[in-house]
Amino acid sequence: MSVTDPVSNLAALIRCPSVTPAEGGALSLLDNLLTPLGFKVERMTATEAGTPDVENLYARIGTDGPHLMFAGHTDVVPVGDEAAWSHPPFSAEIAGGEMYGRGAVDMKGGIACFAAAIARYIEKNGAPKGSVSFLITGDEEGPSINGTSKLLEWAAAKGETWDACLVGEPTNPDRLGDMIKIGRRGSLSGRVTVHGVQGHAAYPHLADNPLRGLLQLTHALMDPPFDHGTENFQASNLEVTTIDTGNPATNVIPAKATASFNIRFNDTWTADSVKAEIVRRLDAAAANGALRPDRTPAKYDIVWADRPSHVFLTRNNALISSLSGAVAGVTGNEPKLSTTGGTSDARFIKDYCPVVEFGLVGQTMHMVDERVAVADLETLTHIYETFIERWFANAAD
Fold first, then answer.
1. Among 75, 163, 267, 277, the one annotated catalytic
2. In the annotation, is 140 catalytic?
3. Which of 96, 137, 285, 355 pairs as cysteine with 216 (C-beta 3.0–4.6 A)?
4. 75 is annotated as an active-site residue
């Protein structure tokens, strides 16, 4: 196989069953693709108690600056009902101009195209006048504990520094050239528990139903809006995702009720300030007697999830203009600069260098019959190769 061909690169990657946290042969394949190009390839396994070990890969060509990093993940989500797939999920079969397989767009396709792009760049120009690195994890679709964050720490401890990073996540909603991600909202999760007094449903005066208090608290979390958006970000939004009492009986008032929630917040907030606002709302709602007349304030406690994701916005013009120009030049589309969507490993990378995201069309990611248009693989490779040329030219100015 030729590394300059993104189609063969992707087919080989899809055939590696690298469901998180399994390496599945995907990193070994990348090692075999990149080493002949002149990359120094290193593998590191990250560990933490209570989580599965994860193998990661770091590869670099060049020793000088400027230094461009490409980041991504070879791990994929489970296939679900394999019988529901039109083509076996790890077969990389092509039908109707599309390649089918788990990870086709999220995000082995992006890795396949960037590998082809840097191979073509080296074939035409020789080694870059600077450095290019691949930072590839096997834990993006999992807990994200033993992946990019630890790989970055490991590399930085060895003296690695970067000037810019491109993450190859699928960013385009409908067609290649639609969207570049230049930032992400923050994400914070928590669990609220309201404590009551268990009792018989026919004798409510002898009990204290925690669901009454919890309804008041969850309403306060969702209304009024936290904000109405900013210049670069959509409005912050909180969703209550579970409510539970653990109570199987219909005639028993439960002793406690719990609700989980997640908020995606914009640059109006920090993780600490949005926590403070949530507690303020909960305290006010706990004292509200609308559903609990003649009762003392509802008793609640809150537990915050570990590792909130912090909001960020990239403003590096050399990076953004190099990528925007490459996208527009290849596709004829002026990409929208966006901060929409969920979180990605860019949230870790932004602490080390400016980072943007651009990859394939994401309409089928995580779905049965995940697939990518074969033509898009060639187009994305052309975009990435043009971006590499533009970035090194702009970084040298």
1. 75
2. yes
3. 285
4. yes
